[in-house]
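User: hey, got a sec? need Arabinogalactan endo-beta-1,4-galactanase folded
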Amino acid sequence: MNDKPETQLGRRSLLLGAAAGAGALVLGTSALPRALAAAAPAAPAATTFFKAVDISWAPQMQAHGYSWKNASGQSQDLLTILKGYGISAVRLRTFVNPSGDPANGHCSIAEVAAFAKKIKDAGMSIMLDYMFGDTWNSVGVQNPPGAWKNMSYSQMLSAMNSYVNQSMNVMKSNDVLPTWVQIGNEINSGICHPVGSVSNPGQMTGLLNAAYNQVKQVSPSTTVCIHLAQPQKYDSMQTFFSRYSGNGGKWDMSVFSSYGSASLAGGIVGNMKKISDAYHKPFMQTEFGGPVSKVSATESALVAYLKALKSNGGQGLFYWEPECMSPFTGYGNGAWNSSTRQPTAIMDGFKQV
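Assistant: Yep! Here you go:
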């Protein structure tokens, strides 16, 4: 299983390709310690399973005239439509000093808090995703914010403490403290390169622990998550977690991205469970998607992942940007029809599990 690639391209590659394409808006390893694995019980089975989404683009889509219709063709509030599919949680990304580009910027903590109020009012839980950059960071790219680029480790540690504390307090002052926080996005290779690279595990751990501690200082009950991509590559996950844990890394839950096909879901989720059990953490999948042009295949993949996660004790699945439409973005792994502005049958997958 581990040597099989997922069938979809990485999200960042698709986003960058979309940004360059016509029609897009020009706007913006060491082995696991066996003694450790035997010393504590496996992660507990989930008591609640969350069907969820990341819809961070939605505010800027609305600002540029986009709206959404339900499956019956009636215009309706996006959150109301999503709740009709059983969606009970929303992930929102935040950039440090973002540009004004609608598709690749915004998502400042103030904007996130404003949208989070609407999500909370809709009775949905919130996940905050720290990108620790001014724009996209993902498995292939982990650039620090521009203001941190030339900092030493000690300077960056101070900046991390201040930034996470201040941003969490913005969420607190708006009464939208998140249920979960991701400290970094797809951080297989670490964060804020080169200072916090996985090849500098002590510094990487120091930065992430600073983020962990500041989240907990403001919101002790928030679940702090480590987010990795490509869980089909077990050795890559093992390298990260062995170095992070070995340097005293702190986290409450392991979360993963996977954009694989239905046939790969069982093995990929099995890897998520295996690595999470090894470190005695619960887990969930915080990114999923598939081609909106292949509705049946993507719906089948969604169902397969949901079933595999539930049967393995996973705590939920987040669909990444299902509400997106062109020409706001050329990203092709949403779940809405850009012509009709209605959800495709992909979304029905949430009702099948």
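Quick note: The two ends are 24 Å apart (CA to CA). Let me know if you need anything else on Arabinogalactan endo-beta-1,4-galactanase.
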